[in-house]
Amino acid sequence: MTTTADILIIEDDAIMREALAEWLEAAGYGVRKASDGNAGLAAVKHAAPALVVTDIQMPGMNGAMVIAELKRGHPEVPVIAISCLFDCGHGMDANAAIALGAAETLAKPFKRGDLLRVVADLLGSHAR
């Protein structure tokens, strides 16, 4: 499968950010990366992606703030919220991320196949 869909990854953990990028690039997606919420929103202002994958727990502008701001300016862009906090009962839960505008959530750690399935489903239903 080859696609040119542009996916923006916003993740403060460099190892996780690079792993996500490798998985998506290997599946044929174009990938841009940002190390925090402010850099991610700046990348969106430069060119809106087809999809955003954002971590929730980040220093400074967290993922909840990113989702809210992204949905104000680009409501058509689907967002996948990722976090280890979804399953532990601390901080934001998956339902709260959905309420903010995330199309899907994935609890860390998740498998490559889980991410690729959700991305394919969202890009199929949000084709531009």
Describe the structure.
- The chain starts with 5 loop residues before the first strand and ends with a helix.
- The protein has helices spanning 14-26, 37-46, 63-73, 94-100, 112-125; strands at 6-10, 30-34, 51-55, 79-83, 104-107.
- It has five helices and five strands, in the order E-H-E-H-E-H-E-H-E-H.
- It has one domain (6-125): Response regulator (Rossmann fold, 3-Layer(aba) Sandwich).
- 43% of the residues lie in helices and 19% in strands.
- Strand 1, helix 1 and strand 2 (30-34) form a beta-alpha-beta unit.
- It has 128 residues and is α/β, with parallel strands linked by helices.
- String of helices and strands: EHEHEHEHEH
Provide the helix percentage. Answer: 40-55%
The strand order across the widest sheet is 2-1-3-4-5
Report, as a whole number of angstroms, the end-to-end distance: 18 Å
Output the CATH topology: Rossmann fold
Query: Based on helices, strands and strand pairing, what is the structural class?
Result: alpha/beta
Name of the CATH first level:
Alpha Beta
DSSP strand content? 15-25%
Entry summary:
With 128 residues, the chain is an alpha/beta fold. It has five helices and five strands, in the order E-H-E-H-E-H-E-H-E-H.
Task: Furnish the topology, listing elements before pairings.
Layout (H helix, E strand, L loop, with lengths): L5 E5 L3 H13 L3 E5 L2 H10 L4 E5 L7 H11 L5 E5 L10 H7 L3 E4 L4 H14 L3
Parallel strand pairs: 1-2, 1-3, 3-4, 4-5
Helix pairs in contact: 2-3
